[in-house]
Predict the 3D structure of the following.
Amino acid sequence: MSPNSFCRRLPAGLTLFLVAASLFLVSLTAGAAAADQLRPPEATLHYHFRPIVTFRATFVGASPEYRVRRALARIEALPVGHMQQPIELTPFVVEDRRGISLHIGEAVLFGILEGDLDPEEKIPLEAAARRSADELGAALLAVSEQRRPMVLVKGIGLSLAATAIAVLLLWLIRRAAAFIVRQFEKVIDAHPESSSFRWARHGWALVQRIAQLLMGFLWLSVAYLWLSFVLARFPLTEPLGDRLTTFLFGLLETIGVGFVEALPSLTTALVILFLTKAFNDALGNFFKAARAGRVQVHGLHPETVNATHRICTIIVWGLGIAIAYPFIPMSDSDAFKGLSVMFGFMLTLGSAGIVNQLMSGLVLVYSRALSVGDFVDLGETVGVVSEVGALSTKVINMRNEEVTIPNAVLVGSPIKNYSRLAGARGTLVSTKVTIGYDTPWRQVHAMLIAAAEQTPGLRALPKPFVYQRGLADWYVEYELFAHMDKPLERVPVLSALHANIQDQFNTYGVQIMSPHFVVQPKDNVVVPRESWHAAPAEPEAGERPQ
């Protein structure tokens, strides 16, 4: 059924009644809105920093703001002798509205109407008038007291004394801060090798800034107390001093009440963090024993103990902080939420590269591809590993240069570890030579081993050994292997070994050259049997020279 057909079925009288009621409600709403728009803004009468009364109604065509100016002018015009006289209250009725006028003798100061009352306060007109009279009487008494020379002299004297004390406190605070900073500097300089003090030296700028902020806070506190005391010493400015004091004590009360209310939650959070630390310390003792070899755990190798310890520490503290976080005071405040959003945003922006490096570091550690002290070949970098970090690995090369390589780069490239399989035998080094087929191989072996035994830096045990790596078209490829204890001296040791090899071959008249024949020689290029054991070679066990 449409609205028009429904209205046609209603009786004519009922229809007229509904229309009239609607128009009446609309007029009431419009009238209330217009009244709110036409109502003048309220104005408060202040006299020498004291609120006396708030005007909200228009009185005989005068707006609240004009009533404030007129009352202030009348109060200022009072003679000095009238200021200490009692304020009288006289009821009146104007335009069917009740009011009470405040006057001193014949001098009318202002009037308070029923329309000036605060509807939420719900106090009678007489009580509001009496309160305004008390406030005004206190203000007039302060003006009268301020004009007395003894009051002024006493206030100035106390203010000067307070100023001297404040200056002395500021000087003492500055001297104390400088003394504490100097003592910290002496303590840090007295322990230059300590790791903890080394970190303190790096954070010294932050410590100085914190000391400056603390000193500034103390200075502001002294200045605040001085200003509150000085303002309270003069009757006219006493309300300002009272407000500053009330604000300070109110702030301290709020902080104290908040601290007391937060004690249960704070205690719970501290207990959770204490248990977390205790559990983490127990894990630390376990991993310390595993590192020392007193505890054997399947799958936990000496190279992975430190990394596993760090991961377990992060997990334990992460769980502890997550459990304790709801109990931290103000954890549900907007400030904490804003910090959480900021850190989450930062982690989102920088997590891709960081997580990649962290995962690559874990792959390096748990694959045991390298560890601190290993002599490795990483392609363009050859040296000893000095640090395997979460994000990068540091290697000291032959030139005593520290090279930092991101873990993601290491994971994607082959790693040659010369120390992993050496154990107590030392790091294995090798060098190659190619000699023609006309030189006895036994002689070449003996000369290479003799050169290795004469080279300082190579170990006598295990004994050096030689392999024949290949029989090429024109020469035999020999490779000499020997063990050394100091991998960083690889370059000078190999240089000395090459020099000794040349001396050995020159001593026995063997030419280090791989001949390439343009024309096949008339005789076969072979070693006669009588030359198989040419010096310095010796017959092997069970073999005699011919």
Summary: The chain is about 55% helix and 15% strand. Residues 175 and 278 are 41 Å apart (CA to CA). Residues 149-236 form one domain. Residues 1-7, 31-36 have pLDDT under 50 and may be disordered.
